[in-house]
Design a protein that fits this description.
The protein is an alpha+beta fold. About 35% of the residues lie in helices and about 25% in strands. It has a nine-stranded mixed sheet with strand order 7-6-8-9-1-10-15-14-13, sandwiched between helices. Strands 2-3 form a two-stranded antiparallel sheet.
Length: about 400
C-alpha cells in the first residue's frame, strides 16, 4: 500500500533574531573569559545563519518589558530563569505554534473534513506539559474527540522521521486512516550565557519553528499529494553517545554538542545510508548525486559541509538545507520538514532538459533525506516527489551565494 504526504506546512513565531545583533548581545555579557568571547564571535559568525525566529519577544531590543525574564534591555544582561519558568512559557507559546501549523496543514486539504482525522502525532524535545500538544490540537481545531493521539518527546533533531514512519504504519494498517503529524520546537527557551563551547554553539544555532503534515493512503490521495513515503531506516553510529546529548538542568535544557560530531558523521554517513538505499537496488547502484534531491537536516554548517563532501553532492543539491539554515537556523525536529518544503516549493524541472516523457532517470524526483540526533542517531528516509506545492514561488531568484564562512569549532 502506498502512503502519501497530502500537505506540508510550516510556522514560525513573529519575533526575528538577526544573527549579528544576537552575537553582539552574547559577546557583551560579563563573566565571559577571553576564550569565551572569541568563541562567541567565531560560532555566531561562522554558523551561516542570517536570521532566526524566537517565541521570546524580549530577546530583541525593540521589545520593552517591566519584568524581563530572559533579557534586560536596560542593562544589556541576559538573565537565567529556572527550568520551571522556561517550561511554563513553552506550554503557552508552543501550543500556539502547534495549532497554527496543524491548521495550515489541514486548510491545505479542502477535500478533508476535520472529523476525517483519525490520528494525531505530535513531536517536541524542548518542553513538556499535560494535557499536551496532541490534546490542544484536538480541542482547538475541533477534531473528533475519539482521535488516536501520540506524542514523541525528547528525541531531538531526528524525531520527525519516527513520526512520519509511525504515520505510514498507521495508514498501512488502516487504509481509511488520515494522520496529522505536527513538530514544534522552542529551542530559544534554553539559551543562556556561558563560557562552555557547547552552550555557546547552541546559542548561535538554535531557533523556534513548527511544521505539520497530513499523511494518508486513502483512494485518490495520489492525485493531490506532494510526496510518496517510500522507506525509512534508523542507524546508530558505533561512536558518539557522549558527543551529542540533551539533558535537563536547573536553568533550562542543556545541549551537549561536541566538536567531533561532524567528523563522526563524515566517517559513518555512507554506512548509515546503506540500509536505506538497499531498499531500492536501482538507487543503490547510482552515484549519490544522481538522486535528484537531498533533504539534509542542517544541524550546523560543518555537518552540511561534511555530508556534501563525503557523498559528492553538488552545491545545488545542498541549497535547500543551506537556505533553511541561513533563514531559520536549527529548529530541531521541525527543521528537516522545512527543508522538504523548500524542495517541494521549487519548480519541477527534468534533470535532462532535452529528455522527453519516459526518459527521466531513476533518481529523478526522488528525495533522500537524513537527520541526526543524540546517540548518535542517524534517521534516513526515501521519498518520491509528486508535484510542486500549491502557491509555491519560482525559485529562480534563489540565492546563488553559498560562500563559506570560517570553520566553526563544532557542528
Amino acid at each position: 500500500m502506498t502512503v502519501y504526504v497530502r500537505s506540508l506546512e510550516t510556522a514560525v513565531p513573529k519575533t526575528v533574531l538577526v544573527q549579528s545583533e544576537a552575537r553582539d548581545v552574547f559577546a557583551a555579557q560579563p563573566g565571559l573569559s577571553r576564550l569565551g568571547s572569541r568563541l562567541v564571535g567565531t560560532c555566531f559568525d561562522s554558523a551561516a545563519i542570517d536570521t532566526r525566529y524566537t517565541a521570546i519577544d524580549e530577546l530583541t531590543n525593540e521589545f520593552r518589558s517591566t519584568d524581563p525574564q530572559f533579557y534586560d534591555q536596560a542593562s544589556g544582561l541576559l538573565l537565567n530563569p529556572s527550568t520551571k519558568v522556561r517550561n511554563g512559557i513553552f506550554a503557552r507559546e508552543a501550543t500556539k505554534l502547534f495549532v497554527e501549523a496543524a491548521r495550515a496543514a489541514l486548510d491545505a486539504c479542502p477535500e478533508l473534513d476535520l472529523l476525517d482525522i483519525t490520528h494525531v502525532i505530535t513531536v517536541s524535545c524542548t518542553g513538556f506539559f499535560n494535557p499536551g500538544p496532541d490534546y490542544k490540537i484536538v480541542r482547538e481545531l475541533g477534531l473528533n474527540p475519539a482521535v488516536q493521539r501520540y506524542h514523541l518527546g525528547f528525541m531531538g533533531c531526528y524525531a520527525a522521521f519516527p513520526a512520519l514512519r509511525a504515520a505510514k504504519l498507521f495508514c498501512e494498517a488502516d487504509p481509511d486512516a488520515v494522520v496529522l503529524v505536527v513538530c514544534a520546537e522552542l529551542c530559544s527557551l534554553h539559551v543562556r550565557t556561558s563560557n562552555d563551547p557547547d552552550t555557546i554553539m547552541g546559542s548561535a544555532l538554535f531557533a523556534d519553528g513548527a511544521a505539520a503534515a497530513v499523511v494518508t493512503a486513502r483512494p485518490g490521495a495520489a492525485e493531490d499529494s506532494l510526496l510518496q513515503l517510500d522507506h525509512f531506516e534508523t542507524v546508530l553510529t558505533p561512536v558518539g553517545e557522549d558527543s551529542m546529548a540533551w539533558n535537563i538542568g536547573d536553568h533550562g535544557f542543556e545541549m551537549v554538542l561536541g566538536n567531533y560530531v561532524p567528523h563522526i558523521i563524515d566517517d559513518h554517513i555512507v554506512g548509515a545510508l546503506q540500509p536505506l538505499l538497499a531498499r531500492d537496488p536501482v538507487l543503490a547502484a547510482l552515484p549519490y548525486n544522481d538522486i535528484q534531491h537531498w533533504a539534509i537536516h542542517p544541524g550546523g554548517r560543518s555537518i552540511l559541509d561534511k555530508v556534501q563532501s563525503r557523498l559528492g553532492l553538488t552545491d545545488h543539491q545542498l541549497v535547500p538545507a543551506r537556505e533553511v539554515l541561513r533563514n531559520y537556523g536549527n529548529m530541531s525536529s521541525a527543521t528537516v520538514l522545512f527543508v522538504l518544503k523548500h524542495i517541494l516549493d521549487q519548480d519541477i524541472e527534468p534533470r535532462n532538459p532535452n529528455a522527453g516523457t519516459g526518459d527521466e532517470g531513476p533518481g529523478d524526483n526522488r528525495i533522500c533525506s537524513m537527520a541526526f540526533g543524540p546517540g548518535l542517531t542517524v534517521e534516513t528516509a526515501l521519498f518520491t516527489r509528486l508535484r510542486q506545492a500549491p502557491g509555491a514561488l519560482n525559485q529562480e531568484a534563489e540565492r546563488d551565494h553559498l560562500e563559506q564562512p570560517l570553520e566553526a569549532p563544532v557542528a
